[in-house]
Design goal:
This protein has 88 residues and is α+β, with helices and mostly antiparallel strands. A 4-stranded antiparallel sheet has the order 1-2-3-4, covered by helices on one side. The longest helix is centred in the middle third of the chain and has 21 residues, at 47-67. The chain has one domain (8-87). 15% of the residues are buried. It has helices spanning 47-67, 73-84; strands spanning 8-11, 16-20, 27-33, 36-41.
Length: 88
Amino acid sequence: MAKLKDDTHLILDGEVRVYRRERSKRWQASFNIDGHTVRISTGKRDLSEAKQCARDTFLGSRLIDRQSQKMTVAARATAERKVFAHRS
């Protein structure tokens, strides 16, 4: 495995990468859902808060992905708004 930069952290057994971009004070996160890379800004400056936000977003996204096969497009959009409302 390649060596990670000092400002990159893996959580949930490497499923989620939390990192800070050059010249940025806020932490970002990336993970894969159903073969698609998802990148988000956690909006957090504190690493522990950023890790919690990234964890919650990843688990919420996985839950929505698993249930989405049974949902209409409108129902999925509503579920996503509820899951990601905490990031505001």
